[in-house]
Structure formats: C-alpha cells, structure tokens
C-alpha cells in the first residue's frame, strides 16, 4: 500500500489553501486532500458532467446562465447516483490513511467535497457551454 499512497501524494503535490495551527481537522483535510484531488480530476469532472447533461436530453444547454448555475447545484445535490459517482472519483484518489480519516467524519467531508465541486463546475460554466 505504501507505494500507492506515496504515488498519490507525489501526484497531488503540495496542499492548496492555508493550513495553520488554528485550522480544524476538516480544513486540513480539505486543503491537503480534497483541493488537490479536485484540481487533478477537473477535466474528468467536466466530461462526467457533460455526459450527464447529454443523457438528460441536453436541457442544460438551453438554459440561461443563471439557470445553468442552479442546474449544476440541484443536480449534484438531488441526484444521489450522480453525486455518489462524483464522490467515488474523489475517494478513489485517497490514501489509506486519508480514507480512514474520511470515514470518521464522512458526512461533513462529503458536504465540503460537493460544495467545492459545485463551485468548481459553476466557475467553469462558460467552458461547458463552448464544448
């Protein structure tokens, strides 16, 4: 397992965001683990989202920019299968230790993970429109 964990940590590089002595364990996990994984998996998240949209009869592309933002948020919050798929894309890049930490507080970490992913997709909505 150590080879896999070392590979994953090397792949992700340095933490993204500020980690201080006052940081909560959730903030540390977010900046050490979640943010780097979301960056690495960004292109995959875009393709997964676009595939989802196409399978949902392309409704997304006919929406106004504001409605697109709401669509992204609603789909990730309400479609449990889709949300679980997105979580799997992130969790699959956890080290064993990170996974052990994750399962101690998965509910709060899942909220952070999905909120960060929603914001990431919203910030890239213009890219989604052009493709």
What secondary-structure arrangement, pairings included, does this model have?
Layout: H1 2-12, H2 25-40, H3 42-55, H4 65-78, H5 80-91, H6 96-104, H7 106-123, H8 125-130
Q: How many domains make up the 3D coordinates?
A: 1
Please identify the oligomeric state: single chain
Uncertain residue ranges? none
- How confident is the prediction overall: mean pLDDT? 89
Give me the count of strands: 0
Cα gyration radius (Å): 16 Å
Taken from the alpha-carbon principal axes, the silhouette is elongated
Beta-strand residue fraction: under 5%
Organism: Flavobacterium enshiense DK69
Protein name: Glyoxalase
Molecular structure report:
With 131 residues, the protein is an all-alpha fold. The chain is 76% helix and 0% strand. It is built from eight helices and no strands. It has helices at residues 2-12, 25-40, 42-55, 65-78, 80-91, 96-104, 106-123, 125-130. It is elongated and about 45 Å long. It starts with a helix and ends with a helix. 15% of the residues are buried. The model has no long low-confidence stretch (mean pLDDT 89).
Summarize the structure.
It contains 8 helices and no strands. The chain is mainly alpha-helical and 131 residues long.
